[in-house]
Specification:
Elements lengths: L5 E7 L5 E10 L5 H20 L1 H4 L1 E8 L3 E8 L2 H8 L2 H13 L6 E10 L8 E4 L4 H4 L2 E3 L7 H12 L2
Antiparallel strand pairs: 1-6, 1-7, 2-4, 2-5, 3-4
Helix pairs in contact: 1-4
InterPro entries: Monooxy_af470
Pfam families: Monooxy_af470-like
Protein name: DUF4188 domain-containing protein
């Protein structure tokens, strides 16, 4: 069954600090399956752990994308401290040690991550005729109003509310 489509334009609250963490892998040598498959198969266990322990871990939501050679996971976190604590947790640490033991410095697979710390009021989103998606799964999803009609207004909404 498909996700419910919210007709019209929607946005999100931007009144809390957030962390966006992007992680992925690239298959550099398609036929070297033994070298890249362990990297690919390590993620489902960690994703399950995140969703089963969201509140405790500070994990908010995520989206996955799969291309011919590259995968990417965009995740949203409550804080930088929560993300860093998870990186030192058992599931992630085991996967990282296993990766280094099995793959090491092979060029058959590449991995990457990017971390963005976003202070409240310094991010915005717009969704037109979409299911709840991306950032909207992590924070409050709400209809666009006159106060949030443009990107500039959405970015300034927190500063306006907190200004004297």
């Amino acid at each position: 069954m498909g996700k419910s489509i919210y007709e019209g334009r929607y946005t999100t609250e931007n009144d809390q600090d957030l962390v966006v963490f992007i992680i992925g892998m690239r298959i550099n040598k398609r036929l070297a399956i033994r070298q890249w498959l362990p990297v690919f198969t390590a993620m489902p266990g960690m994703i399950r752990e995140l969703y089963e322990n969201k509140e405790e871990l500070g994990f908010l939501s995520m989206e996955n994308f799969f291309g011919l050679r590259t995968t990417v996971m965009i995740s949203y976190w409550r804080s930088q401290e929560d993300l860093l604590a998870y990186s030192k947790g058992q599931k992630h640490l085991s996967a990282w040690k296993n990766f280094n033991r099995k793959i090491g410095d092979t060029d058959a697979v590449g991995i990457y991550h990017e971390t963005y710390v976003l202070p409240k009021g310094h991010y915005e989103a717009i969704y037109g005729n979409m299911p709840v998606y991306g950032l909207a799964k992590a924070v409050n999803h709400k209809p666009v109003t006159g106060e949030t009609i443009s990107a500039k207004k959405r970015l300034n909404s927190v500063q306006t509310k907190t200004s004297p």
